[in-house]
């Protein structure tokens, strides 16, 4: 007798066990919602949530409703229908991921694969997506997160595995970043909610009653790189989950090409009749990682993984009053084997109340280990070409997003991942300055010495403004938080507290980042100038503020002494890539330095930049704010107004010196114009007027430098490509905006982009430092006689999607 005949029954037994375990872990209302998932996919009626059109495809093969769906309909006052669809649109509906496993907790979402018929057209799929989006919103009303994924039945088979079937990359869709590894995760964790049984066992024979999506044992080495990038990206939100998954990839890679896949391990146990809690998809991940790290003698990473696994399960062993589900005994045995003290378990169980210091420490550990695993997988993948299925535009978006998070730029404001913590707000914070290294440290205690003794700083920076914007952005500082500076007066503390409250008023907007944003040079969205926060010349000024208003005096050159009332300026910026930064400018030319710095980011903005000025000085507060805001508005107007062949000049007196502010297509520069000779020299200096042009000969695209100038952004490598008949024009702006041009003979655009991307991905210099600053690629095309720039590979219908 063919043993494979028994396999569907074995698979169904495991499926029932998983459903039972999932339901035990769900609260009563969500149990009913869980039963409604296939029911609402199967039916399409105006009487049901998700309905959008009468012709939306519906119906699931072999789906039979029962008493559970009837009860669920009663709970939500929905009519109970048993009619069959004329034509079934879906082969099956399956939950996958942590549902029904050790990893399911009270905050877990349910990921649902809708495997549709192969012959559904694009219009049909669009209608289904509208319905599933509405269903997701309806489930969310009951605090139940359900994400739907449309899956083509041949998505993982043959040529279809590479072309045309993947969803485009989005926050919950890995797009082309992973393929076989995604299928392996589905095989090891899937729960059939309705439809055909998945033939997920090794060497499964074709059977019309079963659904086979492909053979996961075809896993190529090149996919590990894309999958590790995707897990790093997911780790921006949930690093504890991502660390477990990326370490599983590392364990797989260590045995490549003879990797023992987890789905095979689970099947062999099922085949042997083991349906115990040890034959669990998530628990088995931990077992594989533990064995791998013990083999490596890597106890440090193993300890962090154990904490991540424990926190992911959401079983609180120290809370004796809570119910004990089917995982309790095994987890209790595990922590005993790990020799965890009760104090550690209590700390982990109290994760919802972790303060910013605890979160900082844990986030730092997770980020360090994530990057270490990434580099290990990068070295493994470097001997192979980039996965041909990984779309270069998606590679660019992923690396750009990771660069914004893992950047080593000291001016960038780090994001504090709250993980499980409900709030990190503090009633008091204290800044301590170090004159030796000229750094500032922030503590979550009051300014009394006994409070600070033995405590660790929660943030450090080179200016008080850096600490303040970090605390405000990350929820540490609220309108009720009192600020102190150690060893300073109460008046100084009051000024800091007031400044933080005013700053909070300007940063509450929820800014989204689209795919197109990440594929284009950054520009400013928000700009806040903070004046005299910690360096305030107005304290020593003895004049009358009213006279300054009456005489319309210049606060940068005030009175007989020509005193400059601006001692320091902090530019707090949010750019279109979602990065917050804080830049410090000091001295007499602080305002000019700041304007020169922000002008390029203002010039590239297509929409008005949200601009605010916060004056923190003791005196002349409104006068300073007005003067700087007026200069800032003039800068915005002039940098947008300047023409390619002209330079606009704006004079400004600072103390005893008269400066000229020059605006041209490259940005802004300033110079001492105290004498006419200097003024004439500056107007005649060509480098202030235009970017040096590359040698173009008789090329009709001689306006190329103007187009390049409009996209130039420091800190980013940019390639501008124009396909000719026999060769490729390549213009490159490096990280310092130096322009070079060459012609690549016998090459097409796709080949060059792949080659250059591969170089930057696997180059030892970048890989060793875990840099993700892969070049941006642009396609130069002429439209209606004008030379235009388009991000390489970007689908115009998908460019506004949030990412």
Automatic annotation (TrEMBL):
The reaction(s) this protein catalyses: ATP = 3',5'-cyclic AMP + diphosphate
Location of the protein in the cell: Cytoplasm
Cross-referenced InterPro entries: Adenylate_cyclase_1, Adenylate_cyclase_1_CS, Adenylate_cyclase_1_N
Keywords: ATP-binding, cAMP biosynthesis, Cytoplasm, Lyase, Nucleotide-binding
Domain of life: Bacteria
PROSITE patterns from the UniProt entry: ADENYLATE_CYCLASE_1_1 (PS01092)
Start and end residues of each Adenylate cyclase class-I N-terminal domain: 9-201
EC number: 4.6.1.1
Short name of any one Pfam family annotated for the protein: Adenylate_cycl
Sequence similarity: Belongs to the adenylyl cyclase class-1 family.
Name of the protein this chain belongs to: Adenylate cyclase
Organism the protein comes from: Shewanella morhuae
Source species taxonomy: Bacteria, Pseudomonadati, Pseudomonadota, Gammaproteobacteria, Alteromonadales
């Amino acid at each position: 007798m063919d043993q494979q005949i028994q396999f569907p029954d074995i698979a169904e037994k495991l499926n029932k066990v998983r459903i039972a375990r999932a339901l035990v872990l769900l609260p009563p209302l969500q149990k009913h919602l869980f039963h409604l998932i296939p029911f609402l996919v199967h039916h399409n009626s105006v009487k049901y949530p998700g309905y959008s059109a009468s012709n939306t495809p519906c119906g699931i093969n072999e789906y039979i409703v029962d008493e559970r769906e009837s009860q669920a309909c009663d709970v939500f006052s929905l009519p109970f229908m048993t009619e069959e669809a004329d034509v079934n649109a879906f082969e099956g509906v399956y939950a996958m991921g942590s549902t029904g496993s050790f990893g399911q907790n009270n905050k877990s979402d349910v990921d649902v694969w809708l495997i549709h018929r192969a012959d559904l057209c694009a219009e049909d799929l669009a209608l289904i997506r509208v319905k599933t989006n509405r269903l997701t919103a309806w489930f969310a009303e009951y605090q139940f997160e359900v994400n739907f994924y449309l899956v083509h039945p041949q998505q993982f088979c043959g040529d279809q595995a590479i072309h045309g079937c993947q969803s485009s990359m989005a926050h919950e869709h890995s797009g082309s970043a992973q393929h076989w590894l995604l299928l392996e995760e589905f095989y090891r964790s899937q729960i059939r909610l309705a439809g055909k049984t998945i033939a997920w066992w090794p060497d499964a024979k074709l059977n019309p009653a079963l659904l086979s999506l492909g053979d996961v044992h075809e896993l190529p080495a090149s996919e590990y790189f894309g999958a590790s990038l995707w897990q790093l990206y997911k780790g921006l939100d949930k690093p504890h989950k991502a660390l477990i998954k990326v370490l599983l990839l590392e364990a797989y890679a260590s045995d490549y090409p003879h990797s023992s896949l987890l789905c095979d391990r689970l099947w062999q146990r099922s085949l042997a009749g083991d349906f115990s809690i040890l034959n669990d998809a998530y628990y088995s991940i931990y077992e594989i990682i533990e064995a791998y790290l013990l083999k490596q003698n890597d106890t440090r990473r193993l300890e962090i993984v154990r904490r991540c696994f424990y926190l992911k399960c959401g079983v609180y062993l120290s809370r004796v009053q809570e119910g004990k589900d089917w995982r309790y005994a095994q987890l209790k045995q595990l922590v005993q084997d790990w020799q965890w003290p009760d104090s550690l378990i209590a700390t982990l169980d109290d994760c919802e109340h972790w303060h910013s210091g605890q979160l900082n420490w844990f986030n730092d550990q997770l980020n360090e280990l994530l990057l270490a695993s990434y580099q290990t997988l990068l070295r493994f993948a470097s001997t192979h070409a980039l996965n041909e299925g990984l779309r270069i535009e998606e590679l660019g978006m992923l690396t750009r997003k990771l660069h914004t998070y893992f950047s080593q730029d000291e001016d960038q404001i780090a994001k504090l991942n709250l993980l499980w913590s409900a709030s990190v707000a503090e009633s008091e914070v204290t800044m301590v300055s170090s004159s030796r290294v000229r750094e500032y440290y922030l503590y979550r205690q009051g300014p009394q010495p006994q409070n600070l003794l033995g405590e660790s700083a929660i943030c450090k920076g080179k200016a008080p403004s850096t600490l303040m914007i970090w605390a405000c952005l990350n929820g540490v500082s609220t309108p009720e938080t009192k600020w102190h500076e150690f060893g300073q007066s109460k008046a100084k503390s009051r000024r800091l507290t007031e400044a933080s409250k005013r700053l909070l008023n300007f940063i509450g907007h929820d800014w989204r980042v689209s795919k197109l944003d990440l594929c284009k040079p950054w520009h400013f969205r928000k700009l806040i100038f903070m004046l005299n926060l910690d360096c305030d010349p107005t304290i020593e000024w003895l004049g009358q503020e009213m006279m300054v208003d009456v005489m319309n005096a210049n606060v940068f050159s005030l009175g007989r002494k020509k005193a400059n009332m601006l001692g320091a300026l902090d530019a707090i910026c949010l750019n279109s890539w979602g990065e917050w930064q804080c830049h410090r400018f000091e001295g007499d030319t602080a305002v000019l330095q700041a304007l020169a710095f922000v002008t390029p980011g203002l010039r590239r903005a297509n929409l008005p930049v949200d601009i605010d000025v916060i004056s923190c000085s003791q005196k002349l507060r409104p006068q300073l704010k007005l003067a700087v805001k007026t200069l800032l508005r003039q800068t915005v107007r002039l940098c947008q107004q300047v023409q390619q062949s002209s330079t606009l000049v704006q004079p400004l007196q600072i103390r005893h010196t008269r400066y000229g502010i020059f605006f041209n297509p490259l940005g802004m520069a300033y110079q001492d114009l105290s004498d006419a000779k200097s003024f004439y020299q500056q107007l005649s200096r060509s480098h202030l007027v235009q970017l040096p042009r590359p040698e173009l000969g008789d090329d009709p695209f001689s306006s190329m430098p103007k187009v390049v100038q409009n996209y130039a952004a420091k800190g980013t490598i940019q390639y501008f490509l124009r396909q000719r008949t026999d060769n490729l024009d390549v213009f490159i702006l490096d990280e310092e905006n130096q322009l070079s041009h060459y012609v690549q003979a016998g090459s097409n655009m796709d080949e060059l982009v792949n080659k250059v991307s591969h170089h930057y991905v696997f180059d030892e210099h970048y890989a060793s430092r875990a840099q993700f600053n892969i070049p941006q690629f642009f396609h130069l095309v002429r439209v209606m006689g004008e030379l235009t720039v388009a991000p390489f590979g970007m689908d115009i219908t998908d460019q506004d999607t949030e990412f």
